[in-house]
Each structure stands twice: as structure tokens, then as C-alpha cells.
Design goal:
Layout: E1 2-13, E2 16-27, E3 31-35, H1 42-49, E4 57-62, E5 65-66, H2 72-78, E6 80-82, H3 95-109, H4 116-129, H5 145-157, E7 163-167, H6 175-190, E8 194-198, H7 202-208, E9 211-216, E10 219-224, H8 226-230, H9 233-240
Parallel strand pairs: 3-8, 3-9, 6-7, 7-8
Antiparallel strand pairs: 1-2, 1-4, 4-5, 9-10
């Protein structure tokens, strides 16, 4: 069953075409990867998906809802979560406070979850899932980048997304942190959450994704399983053969 459907997405910045007639579908309950060289249009596609950027052409559907013209807020209420390539945390707050801010915003969407007990429960669960319970009292400016990525993930989780967009979540993580992150993604997916992942760490992508799409110069050049992508000569030439950065 298709959860997210992007059809004919085209984005132009002046005379530059950042995305050219891109079609992508993300199946319900899947972990889907999006890879490609720097400048291929991956983050632009994510910005279109969560509403930060309006495409020049194309449509977006989330389940049965046409969300092409919806604001980021409306898309979040539908169940679309997002983390960013650049860390977007509140440096003056603790780990727990960063997550609590998102939980309080989520509580305002639903009258049944905006009391302090429910907010605390949601924050505790997100910190538990991301292995951050022991770091809750630390200021986010005092923790390493790899752990800060988990704070962003926890902040997205308290919004109870149906589909989570992760933009280079392994950036700044060491091998152990990336392995831990992969385990968290598998656990979330096992519980029913769909994940759409942009990542340069090919070991993470190949280990967790069910299907992978490949962008190059704004165009979709391949899609398939991990095995199909690893053996695709066009992908190898454009990206896996050494053009990544």
C-alpha cells in the first residue's frame, strides 16, 4: 500500500532545474532510501515533501490526502515527521527540554494529549527509544553531534508521525553510533512506522532499506532493492563508484 506518492515533481530556481519530473512512492511500513551525489536534489525533494518548498510542477499525496498545497504544519498533523541535515536544536535547553517543546506542540493538536502527564509520558518514551534517558538533563550544547542526532529523532517521535523523513541522520556519527541508530530505525519500523531516509552512509542505507531511489542532477536514474541498486551500472558510475561526497 502506497503511503507517500510524489508525481512529476519539478523544481526550478531561475534557470536551474533542481528536480526534473521526479516520481517516487514510499510504501506503508517500509524503510525507503534516497541517495545520490551532493547537489543531486535530495534535500530539495524533502523540502517539497514536507511543504517548505512548493514545486513548480507535480503533485503530492499522503495516503488518500492531496497535500500539494498544504502548509508544513498541516502535513505534520497528517502524520509527516522530519529531521534536518543541519541540526535544528535549541542549544540553551537540555536534551529533555528540547524533546518536551515538540511534545507540547503535539499536545496542542489533540485535546486528549495536552496534559502534563501525557506530555511527560511521550517524552519519556521518546528518550527511551533513542537511548537518551541518561542524557536528559544535559544541555544539548554539551553532547556530541552523533548523540544530538538522536535528540532530533526523539523530538520527531513525540509528534507521533506515521512517516518519518530523515535527512542525513548519520552525519557526525561514529561507526558505533551509526550501528545503534540502525537498530533504532529497525525497531521503529517493526512497530509500524514508515521511514524515508536520505543518507550518504551506504552501509546504513544498504543495511536498513527495503527500496532505494537514486537521484543525479535532479533526475531519477534508478530505483530498486539494495541488491539491484548495488549492481546497477548507471548508479555505480554516477555515485557508488566514488562520486559521493
Amino acid at each position: 500500500m502506497t503511503q507517500l506518492e510524489l508525481s512529476g515533481i519539478t523544481v526550478r530556481f531561475g534557470g536551474h532545474t533542481a528536480l526534473n519530473n521526479v516520481d517516487i512512492t514510499v510504501s506503508t511500513g517500509s524503510i525507503t532510501g534516497l541517495i545520490g551525489p551532493n547537489g543531486a536534489g535530495k534535500t530539495t525533494l524533502f523540502n517539497v515533501t514536507n511543504g517548505l518548498l512548493r514545486p513548480n510542477e507535480g503533485t503530492l499525496k499522503f495516503g488518500d490526502a492531496d497535500m500539494t498545497a498544504l502548509s508544513p504544519y498541516r502535513r505534520a498533523k497528517l502524520g509527516l515527521g522530519r529531521t534536518f541535515q543541519r541540526l535544528e536544536l535549541f542549544p540553551s535547553l537540555t536534551v529533555r527540554e528540547n524533546v518536551q517543546v515538540a511534545a507540547e506542540i503535539r499536545g496542542e493538536w489533540s485535546s486528549g494529549s495536552n496534559n502534563s502527564a501525557n506530555i511527560k509520558k511521550n517524552v519519556d518514551r521518546a528518550l527511551e527509544i533513542t537511548n537518551l534517558r541518561d542524557s536528559g538533563s544535559k544541555n544539548v550544547s554539551e553532547i556530541p553531534t552523533g548523540k544530538a542526532r538522536l535528540v532530533e529523532l526523539a523530538r520527531s517521535l513525540v509528534q507521533e508521525p506515521k512517516l518519518l523523513l530523515l535527512d542525513e541522520p548519520a552525519s557526525g556519527q561514529n561507526d558505533n553510533e551509526t550501528s545503534e541508530f540502525a537498530d533504532i530505525l529497525r525497531s521503529l519500523n517493526k512497530e509500524g512506522m514508515s521511514i524515508f531516509l536520505v543518507e550518504h552512509d551506504m552501509s546504513l542505507v544498504m543495511n536498513v532499506c527495503d527500496k532505494i531511489f537514486v537521484l543525479d542532477f535532479g533526475s531519477l536514474i534508478a530505483e530498486g532493492t539494495t541488491a539491484e541498486i548495488q549492481g546497477n551500472p548507471v548508479v555505480i558510475d554516477a555515485y557508488l563508484g566514488g562520486k559521493s561526497g
